[in-house]
Amino acid sequence: MPYFDAASSAPLHPVARQALLAALDEGWADPSRLYREGRRARLLLDAAREAAAEAVGCRPDELVFTSSGTRAVHDGIAGALGGRRRAGRHLIVSAVEHSSVLHTAAAHEADGGTVTEVPVDRTGRVAPGAYAAALREAPGGVALACLQSANHEVGTVQPVAEAAEECAAADVPLLVDAAQSLGWGPVEGNWSLLTASAHKWGGPAGVGLLAVRKGVRFRTVQPADERESGRSPGFENLPAIVAAAASLRAVRAEAAAEAERLRGLVERIRARVPELVPDVEVVGDPERRLPHLVTFSCLYVDGEALLHELDRAEFSVSSGSSCTSSTLTPSHVLRAMGVLSEGNVRVSLPRGTAEADVDRFLEALPGVVAGVRERLGAPKPAEAEAAADPDPEPELVVDSLGKRCPIPVIELAKVIGEVPVGGVVTVLADDEAARLDIPAWCEMRGQTYEGERPAERGVAYRVRRRA
Amino acid sequence: MPYFDAASSAPLHPVARQALLAALDEGWADPSRLYREGRRARLLLDAAREAAAEAVGCRPDELVFTSSGTRAVHDGIAGALGGRRRAGRHLIVSAVEHSSVLHTAAAHEADGGTVTEVPVDRTGRVAPGAYAAALREAPGGVALACLQSANHEVGTVQPVAEAAEECAAADVPLLVDAAQSLGWGPVEGNWSLLTASAHKWGGPAGVGLLAVRKGVRFRTVQPADERESGRSPGFENLPAIVAAAASLRAVRAEAAAEAERLRGLVERIRARVPELVPDVEVVGDPERRLPHLVTFSCLYVDGEALLHELDRAEFSVSSGSSCTSSTLTPSHVLRAMGVLSEGNVRVSLPRGTAEADVDRFLEALPGVVAGVRERLGAPKPAEAEAAADPDPEPELVVDSLGKRCPIPVIELAKVIGEVPVGGVVTVLADDEAARLDIPAWCEMRGQTYEGERPAERGVAYRVRRRA
């Protein structure tokens, strides 16, 4: 069945599997030992480090293997903050970083540090000059800035080289989380630290990369450990490291051709979905984007139901909708972009995805969305807002308290036609997603969002009918 | 070639290999996703957790998988200290814990905490009542105590159940590092936290265990992460976890019979080595010990040369001698025991070790040791101390400054016969191993060690001839 969630975890690349099997036999011993099994393991480790460093574009002694991309981020940020403690305790991150970056930032704040979140535009992209501005306006000495190479939820590529220049001008190191892009190519620009995760490019789980350029101050916060230059404690996961390095080299060799091919399939989805499914917002930068990833949101749709129905139709995708998150809040990425989060679908194509599978997805999607909408009693396209007979009452209150996304938006859509043009609908809602989705609906529908205020229970969202 | 260093890393168990291969196909997806690949991964993860918890003797929801035994120790100790911050900041460890425990203790001290190291006897064992005494004499509130189940260098089994009782009486949690013993059986007694490492029992690298009993206060110090109850951040290394759990079950099924068999081989080494090689000290508790591990030290031998020659003879062993360590200090375990560290050899037999390989080792060892001794100009057995013609001068100074282990001891042995009984030899040395090995030599040789004092350069060690 078609698996379209490579951005969560890519299936194991055949080269990774092959290398892993070989290294299980050759690389199980302790590479710090002097006997032959140890020396053999050391050779494998050194070769893997050289291959990975070449792909990253750094020196082998600048790169260590960690146990995951998350650990690389945690320990990379903590080490850079520790090494620059004298410079200050301010950290700059973009608002759309991976949760591992934002959680490390939160831990830094809890520990007395300060953090700036650089905003993004509606495509999810950091503006040129935004890092320079954040550096200028920082409340104290800046220890570190972080910017992802490309966004994991909407595929937007960030201006890393520009941000790195802005940081270099202020003598502040830039850490780039390259988890989503490293399989497609090296990160350009003068970054200082870089993190990545092997299972995102088809390597095995259990391996991350942390590169720290010579000259960047770094102080490990972990207890002392002799492995991996003291930057990544614990016995080396050597078979997986060997597989990670081998598969990175392999996917890079195929990257240009496969990126071209997948970009075509993604373009097809980006173009066809809004034609096939009414009331859809395709999100993310239309040009500067990862080749394999596309995200869209469907009005009046419950994300969890949508994922479930797509799974029944044999398509595995993920979603940033609130109902698919354990915290019942929409994805922080969609929130920072200010785009619709309900009925959100992220399609990320693994290497080798068949064109026919994408076409089958495009065939299946309209029926699946329509089915979910029908069960939710969503307004039919062009029905809702065109209700012919407006209530003479120019103001209407919809009580959606206790109702979850997408119900508040559905109820808004159903009544907007009942007030005259210029009239107002106020939606009372206590679901967190409404805060994002009601303004997003207004944007999509050409209605005027007039803001929110606290109500006796929940929040009152005010929408003025414009058309 | 015979690999006798299972205590560093055991070769992959066939069941681990098989399970790993199966899980590469079935368990590469994100277990937190709702689609079928994710659900399948979740089932595998849950089953692995149940199997591991059963082997550990805890509830599945008390156990998380970490990326290594070292990480389990680091994060287990830090979490327990964090959770008991109100109770106090004192930490109790034994002097012979694994370096991961001692390094975490050092980090705790650097952070303002305090630490007691509980001493061991000459067999490497903590005395009954020693933890009770440490708890009584602690300078402040005790947050946590740590005791290994069995020592990784000399095989001595620790009185964990007794220590756990002593801790429970003081309402202090006990963390047991079970890395060396978990494959042989569950840890007895009322422990509170337990750590282990899969590659020690024949599982793959990249998997550790951390069990935290319900009711034990625990506060993760890592940034927030939704995986593994928030106690072990990063994408689950699922294929390796599945392999770890399957192989733990498999080695347990074979444990009783294989322990019996290996215990016989180890007994053979313990008995035969002192018969075959002169001037050897076999260390560790003779009875209460791991079934597969034996350690001995050879006087007048350079550990690195010995390992090298054994490797040439196709035997892979490890050593706690100073010359085999990157810091040029002898193993902290041998130091805490006060036993000879020079020419140290640890033999740890992997499961399935052939009797014939042990016999071949016993055949090869005497010649290898004799060869190393000859090249170092070591005194022949019964030659050195029996020198017929003592110098009339009752005091003699040997300048071994700048000379590395085992040279200072060799030079001492060569001249002791030159002073009359009752006379004194003073050895000037600046090699750290001399501090351990000169007293140990005196103990082995029935000479009187009279202590050390700082010299103009290095340290002066004073030995009085008794025989």
Automatic annotation (TrEMBL), chains A, B:
Coiled-coil ranges per UniProt:
none
Query: Pfam families attached here?
Result: Aminotran_5, TusA
Question: Which Gene3D superfamilies does this chain map to?
Answer: Aspartate Aminotransferase, domain 1, TusA-like domain, Type I PLP-dependent aspartate aminotransferase-like (Major domain)
User: In which domain of life is the source organism classified?
Assistant: Bacteria
Residue intervals of the UPF0033 domain: 398-422
Catalytic activity from the UniProt record: (sulfur carrier)-H + L-cysteine = (sulfur carrier)-SH + L-alanine
This protein's cofactor list reads:
pyridoxal 5'-phosphate
User: Which family is it part of?
Assistant: Belongs to the class-V pyridoxal-phosphate-dependent aminotransferase family. NifS/IscS subfamily.
Name the UniProt record assigns to this protein? Cysteine desulfurase/sulfurtransferase TusA family protein
